[in-house]
UniProtKB/TrEMBL annotation:
Name under which the protein is recorded: Galactan 5-O-arabinofuranosyltransferase
Membrane topology: Multi-pass membrane protein
Top-level taxon of origin: Bacteria
InterPro entries: ArabinofuranosylTrfase_AftA_C (IPR020959), ArabinofuranosylTrfase_AftA_N (IPR020963)
Residue stretches making up the Arabinofuranosyltransferase AftA C-terminal domain: 482-648
Enzyme's top EC category: transferase
Catalysed reaction, written as an equation: Adds an alpha-D-arabinofuranosyl group from trans,octacis-decaprenylphospho-beta-D-arabinofuranose at the 5-O-position of the eighth, tenth and twelfth galactofuranose unit of the galactofuranan chain of [beta-D-galactofuranosyl-(1->5)-beta-D-galactofuranosyl-(1->6)]14-beta-D-galactofuranosyl-(1->5)-beta-D-galactofuranosyl-(1->4)-alpha-L-rhamnopyranosyl-(1->3)-N-acetyl-alpha-D-glucosaminyl-diphospho-trans,octacis-decaprenol
GO CC terms in record: plasma membrane
Keywords associated with the record: Cell membrane, Membrane, Transferase, Transmembrane, Transmembrane helix
Length: 650
């Protein structure tokens, strides 16, 4: 096991204090693997790049395999389980060897390579392999994945931070993850919707790998850092893999709570880390940014009042907020500028969602599972070790997370929520991370501490082997079930019709098989997808082709600048005008406050109008309205499958 050295400083610089980077058992800690600031930054970059590249290569290889559909065969489950077991056993063997004492230099470098890339391996074995025979990602293009696929499709079609649906409008939804996904799609030469799967896998794997050197710097132990990264990656793959841009932020949240504490105490490298985390996370997923930022504010207040008794932490907090805000402006700037110019906003309802999980406090420490045991140990650790500043910061942050969940429930009285149900994953990650440190300290403050004269080095090594083995077997038990826990989402990736009009399970495709023909017809008439406004309720068509929608599918993902409510009223007025003749209909189009649609895609000239029903659950109702076919006099109509495609003559 790592040496235990007395702490003498609270900085995070190894040059100032070799012992200030981790969680201490009784004022002592493990610091065998602390690197300098420069080597740590290099390690973080190398791990992220290497993990992402390795995952991309694995995905490219898996594309050329011929596995059966996940739901119709146990083959991919067997391969996923087998490779997961081999991965964890390899990590276990290297950890035992690494902790056993001096090892040859070449084996040490192999250990580093495996440890740093092991989270990527876990992403591949538990998620990429089950999805190997489909082009779609978790949940296919069902409900929310339809919006996300639409965003990626647009970002692959342009480098501008435009809205996922409306034309000539800056993005309201944080676009950084989708913009980078669009660039990967361009690099691979595939459509935006198709890059969803590889980009989700690559981004989660890259961040998971980066956690190893990050936690190595924070706690000083490479084996412990590897355990934290593997555990948190496993949890995210179960709880948040369908929303990968949120998952990558959730992965870094526990480390951010520690970085924030150290930054507030003046540690420069931690200051850089928390600024980058908050700035980048605000560019991808604002909810998790908000709760982590609130936790940093709470820690700053506690540090200023009870620890330093000065305004220095508050001044550092302001600097962190300004610097991270400047990073976020890269993505948020165009939208905020439009708001400052006075562009009208209305109709968006992102916070109008209250599922059953939003009415319960998440208490993962009481679930009868491996994760529940780990979270319970983590909770005990946060209480018992609260005298340590880093542990206390994690505990304060956990309180903030729970406070947000409770505030979200109360906010329902004001007509919305704070989406507190989405914090389940953040809370579980915080407790699970603390649980890994609890197990590490149980070993360090173990039999050899209480019975130093009875435990020989040989017995100590045996105890270490047993504890590492038990933790690894627990990890295998949890990780091998990741595909099963995601089975419904994976099945949808095989049963939904993709952008090529095919189903990955080889069953007959639904009406989506006519989408490619519709697109070919429109482009043949000279309509450019990126500049053509379409009115349709066929969300999946908009997910696969980068046409601009006159109306978003629901108000919950709609840009406030799009005025969803007013557009709904305008569509209904257009439908009513169509029954007064072609003249009234065309006049209604000319009087629209927005660029009118040039293409209509109907089923029987029907359009399903989405209406917000919050606080009901489900929170959306679709009400059918009908257009008069005779109102399209002078337009061109074509029947393609069950769809009627009406286009304006050019």
């Amino acid at each position: 096991m790592p040496n235990r050295i007395k702490r003498d400083s609270e900085t995070d610089s190894p040059q100032e204090s070799h012992t200030a980077n981790g969680f201490l058992p009784l004022a002592e800690e493990y610091t065998d693997d602390v690197w300098s600031a420069g080597r740590s930054l290099l390690g973080i970059f190398a791990a992220g790049f290497g993990g992402g590249l390795a995952t991309l290569i694995a995905w490219l290889i898996l594309r050329h395999t011929h596995m059966p559909a996940f739901g119709g065969s146990q083959l991919s489950r067997a391969v996923a389980t087998g490779t997961t077991v081999l991965l964890i056993l390899t990590v276990m063997w290297l950890v035992v060897a690494y902790l056993g004492g001096s090892i040859p230099r070449w084996r040490r470098w192999i250990s580093y390579l495996v440890f740093y890339l092991s989270p990527a391996g876990l992403v591949v074995t538990t998620t990429a392999i089950p999805l190997a025979a489909t082009r779609l990602y978790m949940d296919g293009v069902t409900v929310d994945q339809g919006f996300r696929s639409q965003f990626l499709t647009h970002m692959a079609n342009t480098t501008a931070l435009t809205d996922m649906n409306y034309i000539d409008m800056p993005s309201y939804y944080p676009a950084a993850w989708f913009w980078m996904g669009g660039r990967l799609a361009n690099l691979l030469g595939i459509p935006g919707w198709e890059v969803f799967q590889p980009w989700a896998l690559v981004s989660i794997a890259a961040v998971g790998c980066m956690l190893v050197p990050v936690w190595q710097r924070l706690c000083g132990s490479l084996p412990v850092a590897t355990a934290v990264a593997l555990v948190t990656t496993s949890v995210v793959l179960v709880m948040s893999s369908d929303e990968p841009y949120a998952a990558v932020i959730a992965l870094g949240a526990p480390a951010a709570t520690v970085l924030g504490r150290r930054a507030l105490s003046g540690a420069r490298l931690s200051m850089l880390g928390i600024i980058l985390f908050l700035g980048i996370s605000a560019s991808m997923y604002t909810l998790f940014t908000a709760v982590v930022a609130m936790s940093v504010v709470a820690v700053a207040a506690a540090t200023a009042v009870f620890v330093e008794r000065s305004l220095a932490p508050i001044i550092r907090l302001i600097f962190i907020g300004v610097a991270s805000g400047l990073i976020a402006l890269i993505v948020w700037g165009p939208y905020l500028w439009a708001v400052l110019q006075g562009r009208p906003r209305s109709g968006a309802s992102a916070t109008h969602y209250l599922p059953p999980s939003g009415t319960q406090i998440p208490l993962p420490m009481f679930s009868l599972s491996m994760l529940g045991v780990l979270c319970l140990l983590g909770f005990i650790f946060l209480v018992v070790r609260s005298q340590d500043r880093d542990v206390r910061a994690m505990g304060i942050s956990l309180i903030v997370f729970y406070a947000w969940v409770i505030a979200s429930m109360i906010a329902t009285l004001a007509g919305g929520t704070l989406l507190g149900f989405r914090l389940d994953v953040i809370i579980a990650l915080q407790l699970a991370t603390a649980g890994v440190f609890a197990i590490a300290e149980m070993r360090m403050v173990g039999f050899d501490y209480f019975y130093p004269h009875m435990i020989s080095p040989r017995v100590s090594r045996a105890i270490t082997f047993i504890m590492v083995s038990l933790l690894s077997l627990g990890g295998i038990s949890y990780a091998q079930n990741i595909p099963n826990k995601n089975a419904d989402a994976i099945d949808l990736a095989y049963t939904d019709t993709d952008g090529y009009g095919e189903r990955a399970d080889r069953y007959p495709a639904d009406s989506g098989k006519f989408y490619p023909e519709i697109n070919n017809y429109l482009t043949g008439l000279g309509f450019e997808p990126g500049s053509t406004v379409v009115l349709t309720d066929e969300q999946n068509f908009m997910s696969f082709y980068p046409y601009r929608g006159f109306q978003a599918f629901t108000s919950h993902y709609a840009n406030p600048l799009g005025e969803f409510d007013k557009r709904n009223l305008a569509i209904e007025n257009l439908a009513e005008a169509s029954w007064d003749g072609a003249g009234a209909f065309n006049k209604g189009l000319e009087e629209l406050d927005w660029q009118p649609p040039e293409v209509f895609i109907f089923r029987d000239f029907k359009y399903d109008l989405a209406e917000d029903l919050y606080p009901n659950n489900p929170n959306v109702r679709f009400r059918g309205i009908y257009f008069n076919p005779d109102a399209f006099e002078g337009w061109t109509e074509k029947q393609i499958g069950p769809f009627i495609v009406v286009t304006k003559k050019r």
